[in-house]
């Protein structure tokens, strides 16, 4: 399967970087750093996150697709009408894919899941839990605006103030900064609802540039994006991605705006790789590949486990063995929080949880997630033998709910 950097589209994009010697190589490195998420991977992971989020919640559950709402506009037109899953008259972004997910949930179990219900339906069904589906929570501004638009309806605002409803934000990837912004926006001196009644569920933390590149390389890449962003006439706020995020996560259904603007902005002097943040159909085949800088070798190098990052070791490890080595190496660096472990290893939270349980059962870590002497010896053995001295369980990653999620229509 070809890599993105090898496609004709990427080569055409790279050919624009001619200002200084070596700029074309920096462009190749930047393309190679993108984390690409296929439609199947997105739906499978979002399905797993939904399953975790709803396990202990009572029925019925209202499901809404998060989307941009114009400032000052209410999400609900009135209390009797269902809200629009996608905006009227404008371009359809990720909310189209998320709306399909909401529809699939409802069709699978219409008594449990309500598909974009009206305010009057929420009242009649006594619905206390609202699932807000999103692909990526980056800065948190879109999510904040969406919840604020919902609260412009007095019933929603009243139920929130009394603590009668809880927003469960379910996303493929969620950044801590975005979560903090949303909670801060709805926190008041008299209420802790922003902490207790806004809950976040996610499969990944977004790939963080500071974990992918050394500090000097990151500084060089930021300057590179700034310099060519000016040439491409990208607005200053998007040259390094929205809020200078240097985002590296791109979905098959669209490119987020926190990715540097030179990837998606079109002007009379610039041809982007993802025009208007749309992924050309011809590039769909490469979205099962991930950039080399987020492969196990790069992650282990960032965790200062260079002896494990060699081809001699990694080529002998099966996928589950590599995942376990990644988690043990992160724990050795005193990275113990679940979200931080997911971020450092580039593994879904559910996989990290499974590996932690296995490491506990084998005695490689203690209850505080500290490596035991046995765990340290096992990592040394992997470096020496090129394989784990035991046969780890084969997690199949299967999900019992929902059974299927329909992919977005072409």
General description of the model:
The protein is of the alpha/beta class and 410 residues long. It is built from 17 helices and seven strands. The chain has helices at residues 8-14, 23-32, 39-54, 94-108, 119-124, 141-150, 154-161, 176-185, 193-196, 209-212, 215-231, 296-302, 311-314, 319-332, 338-345, 349-362, 373-385, and strands spanning 35-37, 61-65, 113-115, 129-137, 166-174, 198-204, 249-251. The strands form two sheets. Strands 3-2-4-5-6 form a five-stranded parallel β-sheet, with helices on both faces. A two-stranded parallel ribbon has the order 1-7. The relative contact order is 0.13.
Key structural traits:
410 residues; alpha/beta; two-stranded parallel ribbon; 17 helices
Approximate shape: globular
Number of strands: 7
Fraction of helical residues: 40-55%
Structural class: alpha/beta
Mean residue pLDDT: 85
């Amino acid at each position: 399967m070809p890599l993105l950097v090898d496609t004709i589209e990427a080569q055409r994009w790279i050919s624009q970087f001619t200002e200084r010697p070596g700029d074309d190589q920096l462009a190749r490195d930047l393309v190679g750093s993108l984390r690409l998420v296929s439609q199947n991977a997105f739906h499978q992971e979002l399905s797993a996150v939904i399953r975790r989020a709803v396990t202990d919640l009572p029925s019925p559950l209202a499901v809404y697709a998060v989307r941009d709402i114009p400032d000052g506009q209410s999400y609900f037109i009135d209390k009797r009408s269902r809200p629009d899953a996608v905006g009227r008259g404008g371009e359809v972004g990720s909310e189209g894919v998320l709306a399909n997910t909401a529809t699939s949930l409802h069709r699978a179990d219409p008594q449990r899941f309500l598909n974009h219900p009206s305010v009057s339906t929420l009242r009649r069904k006594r619905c206390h839990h609202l699932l807000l589906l999103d692909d990526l929570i980056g800065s948190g501004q879109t999510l904040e605006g969406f919840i604020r638009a919902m609260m412009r309806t007095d019933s929603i605002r009243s139920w929130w103030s009394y603590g009668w409803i809880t927003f469960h934000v379910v996303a493929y990837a969620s950044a801590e900064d975005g979560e903090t912004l949303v909670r801060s926006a709805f926190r008041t001196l008299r209420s802790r609802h922003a902490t207790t009644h806004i809950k976040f569920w996610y499969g990944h933390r977004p790939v963080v540039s500071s974990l992918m590149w050394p500090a000097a390389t990151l500084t060089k890449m930021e300057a590179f994006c700034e310099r060519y962003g000016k040439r491409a006439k990208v607005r200053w706020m998007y040259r390094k991605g929205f809020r200078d995020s240097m985002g590296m996560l791109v979905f098959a259904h669209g490119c987020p705006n926190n990715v540097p603007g030179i990837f998606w902005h079109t002007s009379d002097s610039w041809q982007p790789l993802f025009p208007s943040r749309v992924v050309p159909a011809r590039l769909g085949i490469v979205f099962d590949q991930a950039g080399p800088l987020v492969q196990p070798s790069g992650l282990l190098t960032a965790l200062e486990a260079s002896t494990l990052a060699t081809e001699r070791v990694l080529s002998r490890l099966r996928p589950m063995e590599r995942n376990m080595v990644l988690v043990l190496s992160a724990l050795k660096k005193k990275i113990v929080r679940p979200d931080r472990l997911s971020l450092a290893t580039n593994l879904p939270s559910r996989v990290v949880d499974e590996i932690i349980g296995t490491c506990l059962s084998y005695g490689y870590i203690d209850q505080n997630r500290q490596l035991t002497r046995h765990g340290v010896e096992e990592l040394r053995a992997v470096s020496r033998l090129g394989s784990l001295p035991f046969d780890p369980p084969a997690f199949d990653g299967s999900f019992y709910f929902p059974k299927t999620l329909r992919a977005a229509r072409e």
